[in-house]
UniProtKB/TrEMBL annotation:
Coiled-coil region list: none
Keyword list, A-Z: Hydrolase
Cellular component terms (Gene Ontology): membrane
Gene Ontology MF terms: hydrolase activity
Residues in AB hydrolase-1 domain copies: 48-273
PANTHER family: AB HYDROLASE SUPERFAMILY PROTEIN YCLE, MONOACYLGLYCEROL LIPASE
Domain of life: Bacteria
Species the sequence originates in: Roseomonas acroporae
Record protein name field: Alpha/beta hydrolase
Transmembrane segments: none
SUPFAM superfamilies, A to Z: alpha/beta-Hydrolases
Length: 282
């Protein structure tokens, strides 16, 4: 795979530089007019871009990346704005601006067309990218995704409480269990890793995105919907419902014993679904 130069390669760190099979992992930095975007590159081969959920960083995908790399893929993980070395979202940003960051990463890496996978709220960014820059996208994967942008107000309150780090851990755990994790799965995995200011900025960007054309834009491409069987935020829609809302090119995989968090709950199943989809979309 041919890569374009990336500005500002970060100094290599001695820990965590080598992925499965000896493929080097690199931390990169792309300078944009609106500020820097950092990313992690693992593996070698056709690219898969991973976009994390609301207010969370790329480390959420740590459990699936070794499996994707072992299957022969390059995994690109842009760090959301406001996390790590990525500059905060500028005032007035929309989902289109967030998608433009992903487009810049794909172009800098020479990875187009690529598979783009968005977890939960990250799926909105993936679908906006497919709408705005369709030539960069080979397929879209939606992981535990709300197909629209509306969320039940009671569940939304639990989402907010989950990342309100001033609340006692036990109270936050109750909200995490309600909104994100299937019964029996360890919600403590998501006590850390939240960035409240980032979540607020991302919510504002979603609210500022008033156009709706992107909601069906992914139908131009093969689309995978990975549903979590016990998802309180986005209960698994039927394939017929997905065809009605997302178009005829969508396929569905339902992952058992998983809630909206999905990726840390069932990393093997999520990786297997992504690998199969990426190979079929090649």
């Amino acid at each position: 795979m041919r890569r374009r130069p990336v500005l500002g390669l970060l100094p290599a760190l001695s820990m965590g530089l080598w992925g499965m099979g000896g493929a080097m992992a690199e931390e990169l930095r792309i300078e944009r007019e609106t500020g820097a975007v950092t990313l992690r590159r693992d593996g070698a081969g056709p690219a898969i871009v991973l976009i994390p959920s609301l207010g969370r960083g790329q480390e959420d995908f740590d459990g699936i990346v070794p499996r994707l790399v072992a299957a022969g893929f390059t995994v690109l993980r842009p760090e959301p704005r406001g996390i790590g070395g990525s500059a905060p979202l500028p005032p007035g940003a929309t989902l289109h601006d967030m998608a433009a960051d992903i487009a810049a990463v794909i172009e800098a890496e020479g990875a187009a067309p690529t598979i783009v996978a968005g977890h939960a709220a990250g799926n909105w960014v993936a679908r906006v990218l497919a709408h705005d820059r369709p030539a960069l996208v080979r397929g879209v994967a939606m992981l535990a995704a709300v197909t629209g942008t509306e969320i039940d107000p009671a569940i939304r309150r639990s989402i907010t409480a989950s990342y309100t780090t001033t609340l006692p851990d036990e109270e936050r755990l109750a909200h995490l269990r309600r909104a994100y994790f299937a019964p029996g799965n360890d919600a403590r995995a998501w006590l850390p890793g939240w960035h409240p200011e980032v979540a607020a900025a991302q919510r504002a960007a979603a609210a500022a995105t008033t156009d709706k054309g992107w909601l069906r834009a992914a139908e131009r491409h093969p689309l995978l919907y990975v549903a979590a069987a016990e998802d309180a935020i986005a209960p698994p829609p039927s394939l017929e419902e997905l065809h009605a809302t997302l178009g005829p090119r969508v396929t569905r995989v339902v992952v058992a014993r998983a809630g909206h968090a999905l990726v840390p709950e069932q990393p093997e199943a999520v990786a297997a679904a992504l690998i199969a989809f990426a190979r079929e979309a090649a």
